[in-house]
Write a structure and sequence with these properties.
The structure holds 2 protein chains of 2 kinds. By secondary structure, chain A is an all-alpha fold. Chain A is 74% helix and 0% strand. The chains are: A mainly alpha, B alpha/beta.
Chain lengths: 288, 318
């Protein structure tokens, strides 16, 4: 977690020397370097990798070639499903989809969290208390159950081909309370700092103080939290799909793991093994 | 600048804190005027009130602040915003937290000009570098692009001073500008303030609890106790001929190298301002208190020309 801070920090610095110092410190931390390398590898895998995917998403091509349910081979590096889906291709597409889901859901959660946290932090008295009470309710309810509930309720969207969008919205809508807490706390402490008073003393307007001095100072911990949220979102997506609440027409790691489980782990172990491995590595890399 | 019967109260859940309760004083154009008092006596709140940036739940409830023949308290918010930074500057106590850690010192200086004056980026930069040079920062061109954390405490305070001065205000509030600095840097910063006063023909209100700083720097002093004025006079008179027992106690609490004598602490604490003592607010701690002090609030009287004191018994001292 510590090292994640240093991967993020350079963004707010402008002087070249600061970048250099941060990079030098970062280089000394081996697990951070490994983590960064793996994260970059995943992003490349999910973006550039799609151009090299042997089969399109969810293609049963192998079935017609008599290659269904095959163990890993040169032709199908991660093997194939009994239904003829090439696990390697769909792992690549799954990376693309999982990255999209995780990042988009995080952006949504951060957006909602910052808005509500901003209101709670900038108002006082009744409004602030009410907002925080609602946030607390969202914080304590078992989110996973609600996520599954809403995934089922809005399943019609899945049939219309918006399965991923649905998961993004659900993860975003339930992912904001943590961010709200951090943003509110950070605003409360930042606004008491002397430089806010000093900005007033030089005649800066209220909106300028908020936009230029308070929000940038609130962003630092939010960026850290956002990267952790992204990792958490990947896991939650896997859980949703694994439990059968995902979109079977979209390749995701969770979907593949679920199909591997359905096909039988003891025979077709490769179907769930490789996407599972990707899930574990992506999580470890982005949180290390 | 004239402050007339200024009242600033904080409306807290525990009750109304009368942090500044009817203070009046005059600051002579082109002088350094000290505001002295213990922590919590209301000197900072008085300065924030003049700038009209009292933090919530504080509110200015009465009085007048006349500056350049306008009453600042009756200005519209928009007009007051133009006064801040432009005509009245302020230096804060803690130079470390009074600069935004995310921006270069250059951008924090030019921000003031962008807010207040029509200047090009280039002019603003030139002006900022010039100010950094005036406040004694070595290699100002290079420092322009530094971040606050790359500077030492004394350097940061110089930057804060430069920021307060860049729009050339005619009045400057310095709120304990040397409290968080070590002694040698303290001396340098005070010297800088004196130079600035001379070179820019500025009026400076120096807020401090340090009688040494007062003696060294100021020409006039106003002593504040529990949100009210105890005594006000020129610095020489305050030190040689204090009329208020509180001023006398403050002076006795200053350690001296040249005279061997005991240090006398003032007994007790600054009173709770939600429920201040009746009569003279200093009476529970005053060695000379008599019955009338408990009952009647003393008025600020002119003991000699320019020497004001709020005490029932000043006539019987010396």
């Amino acid at each position: 977690m510590e090292t994640q801070v240093s991967t993020v920090e350079p963004q707010k610095r402008r002087a070249a020397s600061q970048w250099a110092i941060t990079w030098r410190r970062f280089k000394r931390n081996k697990s951070a370097i490994a983590g960064l390398a793996i994260v970059i590898a995943f992003v490349l895998f999910g973006t550039v990798g799609t151009f090299f995917a042997p089969y399109p998403q969810r293609s049963h091509e192998a079935l017609y070639q008599g290659q269904a349910g095959q163990p890993p081979s040169w032709r199908h590096p991660f093997g194939t499903e009994p239904s003829g889906i090439d696990v390697f291709s769909d792992s690549i597409w799954g990376t693309t989809n999982d990255l999209y889901v995780a990042v988009a859901a995080t952006i949504l959660a951060v957006g909602i969290g910052m808005l509500i946290g901003g209101v709670a932090g900038y108002t006082k008295g009744l409004i602030s208390d009410a907002v925080m009470a609602i946030t607390q309710v969202f914080f304590v309810i078992p989110t996973l159950l609600l996520i599954l509930f809403f995934a089922k309720v809005f399943q019609v969207l899945v049939f219309q081909g918006y399965g991923l969008t649905l998961i993004v919205i659900i993860l975003g809508v339930f992912g904001w309370p943590g961010i709200t807490y951090v943003v509110r706390g950070q605003i409360l402490s930042t606004r008491e700092l002397e430089f806010v008073q000093a900005a007033k003393a030089i005649g800066a307007s209220g909106s300028r103080i908020l936009l230029r001095h308070i929000i940038p100072n609130v962003m630092t911990p939010v960026i850290v939290l956002a990267s952790l949220t992204t990792a958490g979102n990947i896991l939650t997506e896997v859980v949703i799909s694994y439990l059968g609440f995902g979109d079977a027409n979209q390749a995701t790691w969770g979907q593949l793991i679920e199909e591997g489980y359905a096909a039988g782990l003891s025979i077709y172990w490769w179907v769930a093994f490789f996407p599972g491995l990707l899930t574990v590595y992506s999580f470890l890399a982005s949180t290390s | 600048m004239t402050v007339d019967n200024l009242q600033t109260y904080f409306f807290t859940e525990a009750g109304v804190v009368k942090a500044v309760d009817g203070i009046s004083f005059k600051v002579k154009q082109g002088s350094i005027h000290g505001l002295v008092g213990e922590s919590g006596s209301g000197k900072t709140v008085a300065a924030l009130s003049v700038m009209r940036i009292v933090p919530r739940p504080g509110k200015i409830v009465g009085g007048r602040v006349v500056f350049d023949s306008t009453d600042l308290l009756s200005l519209k918010d928009q007009e007051m915003r133009k006064v801040r930074g432009n005509r009245i500057g302020m230096i804060f106590q803690d130079p470390i937290s009074s600069l935004d850690p995310l921006f270069t010192i250059g951008s924090q200086l030019t921000e003031v000009l962008e807010q207040n004056k029509e200047v090009s980026k280039k002019e603003a930069k030139e002006e900022a570098i010039k100010l950094l040079e005036i406040v004694g920062i070595p290699e100002p061109e290079k420092r322009f692009n530094s971040y606050p954390h790359e500077l030492s405490g004394g350097m940061k305070q110089r930057v804060a001073i430069a920021r307060a001065l860049i729009a050339r205000p005619s009045l400057l509030f310095a709120d304990e500008p040397t409290t968080n600095l070590d002694v040698t840097i303290q001396a340098q910063v005070l010297e800088l303030l004196k130079d600035l006063k001379k070179n820019f023909d500025m009026t400076i209100v120096l807020i401090t609890h340090d009688m040494g700083v007062i003696a060294e720097t100021t020409e006039y002093v106003t002593v504040i106790y529990a949100g009210q004025i105890s005594e006000s006079a020129d610095t020489r008179t305050i030190f040689l001929n204090p009329k208020h027992p509180y001023t006398e106690s403050l002076l006795k609490a200053v350690p001296r190298l040249d005279k061997r004598r005991e240090l006398v602490a003032i007994p007790g604490n600054v009173p709770n301002l939600i429920d201040p003592p009746s009569g003279c607010r200093f009476h529970p701690r005053c060695p000379y208190a008599i019955d009338i002090c408990k009952e009647k609030v003393p008025l600020l009287e002119e003991a000699e020309s320019g020497h004001f004191v709020a005490c029932h018994r000043w006539r019987s001292f010396r």
